Structure formats: C-alpha cells, structure tokens
Amino acid sequence: MKGTFTVRQSTALRTLVEKTVANTPVYDIHTHLYDPAFGDLLLYGIDDLLVYHYLVAEAFRYFDIPYEKFWALTKEQQAAMIWDALFIQHSPISEACRGVLTTLNLLGLDVKKRDLPKLRKWFVGWKPTDYVTRCMDLAKVERICMTNSPFDDQERAVWDKGFRRDERFTAALRIDPLLVAWLESAPRLKAWGYNVTTELTERTLSEVRRFLGDWAKRIDAQYVMVSLPPTFEYPSENYCSLLIERVVLPFCREAGLPFAMMPGVKRGVNPQLRLAGDGVARCNVAAYENIFSAHPDNTFLVTALPRENQYEFCVAARKFRNLHLFGCWWFTNIPFLIEEMTRMRFELLGLTITPQHSDARVLDQIIYKWDHSRRIIAKVLVNKYTDIAVTGWVPSKQEIERDVKTLFGGGFDEFLSAGKRIASSGDVTI
Ligand code: RAT
Ligand code: ZN
C-alpha cells in the first residue's frame, strides 16, 4: 500500500523536530574555552567578542592602518575600531558579525541602539563561573571540551600548580608542536625531563610516549588532537608521519583514546594577521585513508577544513568504521557550508557523525554558534525525515529524540567507549 503523509502531519513533524533540536542539550566536543580555574585564559565579554580573529581578518579588509599599528593598540581600542568598521560603517552581515548580534540579542541586550559603551557596561561585574552557567544555559550546552596544549606556557603553569576541575569542562590533548615542529619541540621536552634527542631513536620514542601518557593522565584527555597542513602524507619518512606511526598511534591504541586529525590548514599564509593569518588548501585524503586502513584498532576523529575534501572524507567514513567525522570547522562554519556538509553527511553516513562543534574561543560565542547551527541541523533533519515519511515511515517523538541525542554527543560518547573497549580487550578491531 502507498504511504500517505498529509500536510498536517508534515507541519507537526517539522514543529517536533525543530523543538527537539532546539532543546536537546549538546556536548560541545571541540572549543578553545577554559575551565574558569584558568583565569585570564577564559575569554568572555563584548571586547573579546569583537577582537575574535575571525572578525580581525574581516576588519582588515576595511582598515588602512599598518598591521603593527593595530597590534600596538589595547584590546578595547582594537575592539572599538572593529566595531566601527564592521558594524557602524557597514552592515554586519558576515557570519562572524551576525554571531555577535545573535549573542547580544539572546543575552537580552538591545543591539538596535548600536551603543558600544552601553553594551560594555552590561558585561562588567560578572563572576566567571556564573557567566559560564548563564552562557551554557542559553546555548543548552551541557559539557565543553577544551583544547589543552602542554606547549602553551600560560596553560601549562596552571596544570603544574593543580586546581579543582569544573566538571562541565572536559579536556583534549593538543599536540601540534610535537608533530609539526619536532625539531623545536624536542629541546622543550628535554627541558621538562624527557630524555629525548632530535633523532627518533628507540629511547626518544619511548620518552615521547611517556610524555603523552603523563599529559593524557594529568588532564584526563578525552582524545589526542592535531591540525595538519595540506602537504601531509602518510606513510612518509618525515618527523610528523613517523611520530604518528611510531608513538601517537600506539599510545592512543593502548590508552583507548581517539586520535583527532584536522586536515587542511595552511598556517601563517599572512603572518602579519597573527592568529587571523591562517589559510586553507585541499589535502590528499588518500594519506588519511592509509592511516585508517593500516590501524584498524585505532579510532579516529576528523574534521577537515577544505570544502573540496568533505565528500571524499564522507566516502572514507563509509569504508572505515574506525573514523568518526565531526563538526564544520572554522571557514566551513558558515550557514551555507554547514547545510551542505550536514546534508551530505546524513545522506552518506546517516546518524553516525557529530554534525557540529563550536570552536568557540570566547565563552559567549557558544550562544550564537549553537543557535545558528541548531537551526540548520533542524532544517536538514526535517527534510530527511520528510523524505522517509512519504513512504509511511513517520518517525515517532521517541525516535526523533533518540536521533538528536545521538547527534549531540551520544554518538560521540559511544565512539569513545568503543575505543576504550578495544584497548581493554587487547585484540578486537573495529
Ligand atoms: O577556528 C579557530 O579558532 C582556529 O584559529 C583554530 O584554532 C582551529 O580551530 C584549531 O583548532 O586549530
Ligand atoms: Zn579549534
């Protein structure tokens, strides 16, 4: 018998999906936010929102002052210049600008007056832990995964001293310098008491492994993470590839931790822009397929920067169940690409992905990043559910809630548990 799906059912389905997606708490699995115990490292407030490096890059398209002059200004002066160029002199329609407005609006502030001093006043006096609660409540974010680098002096000092963890914040061990700048990092490891030389001898490899083990334990890492350039190849005789093969993957396998790779970032395309100066280029997905296939008992998380690689990575994830794709990273975190990527991932991989992370660097940003992404995820889900509903397979409320939970952290947690199971059983591959 032919299935029927009435206009009324279709409206009810849309309303239900939109409500569920809007209200389901999410685990934000990659951010640059910090537990309030890290003090100044946890950024928040209007000035930090305005000097976000996504906005700096956009503002420089209007500025005519030399880069150095801008960097010599105080944060408040920089923020005022960006506000003037991107919000007052022109309409703030870019995604990063729109994000500031969504954030202020959802915090209950009146944006239409365009009054920066007044906005600034509102942010004064918040206690960081209370403000974390306020932002997480508004964004319906239940856990936040930090990005934790032992190579960051300010951050390392806090870990060294020790502190009481805020249980809403989980940790991820970020190791870019170790892998992409080994020759500069080796002396640092040595200074921290690891008996390494720049040559990858057996002793050096086992000391690097000790370094990873110490840090993963100290921070209670959920995964180990690196961002990689478009030139990355595997297998290969360079330090990065060798260290991944001989230390990182054996360590991750034994510890039951996923190795998260973020391919396609070209660091320092314009160094004068500092943090805002990185670019993107297409990468060789075959190099990554080689890793997934050679290491079936490792688990991998991937979010790729180039739009051109998204399709290939979706196909790779169909071949390798030890790969979990997540998020729309950085330049792909714009509505146009979030919709395209989410649709393609659902159509090729069903619900076995984590569609989004915020990448927030400023606490308040979780409000807009999740508001904007939730709307798009809901739109695509409604579309996909409608496609099956016309056959008569109308998803129930419980099924929709189950699916959204999976997308908003449940599937990620399960993927992490699978890695732990492999580690404890010793011989299972996935
Ligand atoms: O999106 C960003 O803020 C970038 O600057 C990067 O930090 C990127 O997300 C990364 O994790 O390397
Ligand atoms: Zn990031």
CATH homologous superfamily label of the largest domain: Metal-dependent hydrolases
Shape: globular
Helix/strand structural class: alpha/beta
CATH fold call of the largest domain: TIM Barrel
- How many domains make up the coordinates? 2
Stretches where pLDDT falls below 50 for ≥5 residues? none
CATH class of the largest domain: Alpha Beta
Largest sheet: 7 strands, parallel
Number of discrete helical segments: 18
Question: Quick check: average pLDDT?
Answer: 97
Q: Give helix % range.
A: 40-55%
Roughly what fraction of the amino acids lie in strands?
Answer: 5-15%
The gyration radius over C-alpha positions equals 22 Å
Instruction: Count all strands and give the number.
Output: 9
Please give the CATH architecture of the largest domain: Alpha-Beta Barrel
Bound molecules: D-arabinaric acid, zinc ion
The span between the termini is: 40 Å
The strand line-up of the biggest sheet is 1-2-3-4-5-8-9
List the defining traits of the structure above.
single chain; 430 residues; alpha/beta; TIM Barrel; uronate isomerase, domain 2, chain A; 2 domains; 7-stranded parallel sheet; two-stranded antiparallel ribbon; 18 helices; 9 strands; 53% helix; binds D-arabinaric acid; binds zinc ion
